[in-house]
Amino acid sequence: MSAPLLSIEGVTAYYGAIAALKGVDVTVDEGEIVTLIGANGAGKSTLMMTIFGAPQARDGRIVFDGRDITRVPTHDIARMKLAQSPEGRRVFPRMTVLENLQMGAAVTSYAHYDEDLERMFAIFPRLKERASQRGGTLSGGEQQMLAIARALMSRPRLLLLDEPSLGLAPLIVKQIFSVIRELNRTEGLTVFLVEQNAYHALKLAHRGYVMVNGRITLSGGGRELLEREEVRAAYLEGGRH
């Protein structure tokens, strides 16, 4: 059996004296969509940032594509076919849509730039309409599309998505999750998704993990977790948005 594309083994991370991650174990296989759900403040976004080396893991190790990246600087990790669409979108507000996408391509190389740009415009037609508009003037949904497209411009083997549904209208959330599903189905894109919207995330994912106070408390198939009584009670009551 081949090794996972991403393996997080016994990882701890701290903010000062506060332990944010307490011995986290997570694996993501090539071609999978894996989701991490949990309440606000559970440590989900910290895990995403720790994969990228800020903060660095204090214990344990993080292995991507067979290479131990636990102590690798963030800017070097970004060149490893590992891309992130961060929480809060963080598009470059003064740059146009086109310039934001160029920044995504710049991380690796411009070898396939024209082809990839056309691909992004096909996936997100709204971005084509807004190509010359500044990132900061886009709606929340358009900024999220731009953040994902910018990450995809580097042709990643693994896409980390941090809270893509945060603050978005239900219709836009459905659109974005449908794009993720399609990219996984047609291109085999591997996705590690952090989400508070447990219902959408577990419906989308092949496998899921539940995080509580910096620890993984449950794991299993996406649909299987969706049916678990404790998951439904904690994350799904009235949560079908």
UniProtKB/TrEMBL annotation:
Molecular function GO labels: ATP binding; ATP hydrolysis activity; branched-chain amino acid transmembrane transporter activity
Return the SMART domains for the record. Answer: AAA
Coiled-coil portions? none
Q: Which UniProt keywords apply?
A: Amino-acid transport, ATP-binding, Nucleotide-binding, Transport
ABC transporter domain sequence ranges? 6-238
Give the matching PROSITE patterns.
Answer: ABC_TRANSPORTER_1 (PS00211), ABC_TRANSPORTER_2 (PS50893)
Can the keyword Nucleotide-binding be found in this entry's annotation? yes
Tell me the GO BP annotations in alphabetical order: L-amino acid transport
Q: Which InterPro entries match?
A: AAA+_ATPase (IPR003593), ABC_branched_ATPase_LivF/BraG (IPR030660), ABC_transporter-like_ATP-bd (IPR003439), ABC_transporter-like_CS (IPR017871), BCAA_Transport_ATP-bd_LivF (IPR052156), P-loop_NTPase (IPR027417)
Source domain of life: Bacteria
Task: Indicate whether Cell division appears among the record's keywords.
Answer: no
Q: Which PANTHER family match?
A: HIGH-AFFINITY BRANCHED-CHAIN AMINO ACID TRANSPORT ATP-BINDING PROTEIN LIVF
Q: Which family does it belong to?
A: Belongs to the ABC transporter superfamily.
Recorded protein name is ABC transporter ATP-binding protein
Instruction: Give the classification, highest ranks.
Output: Bacteria, Pseudomonadati, Pseudomonadota, Alphaproteobacteria, Hyphomicrobiales
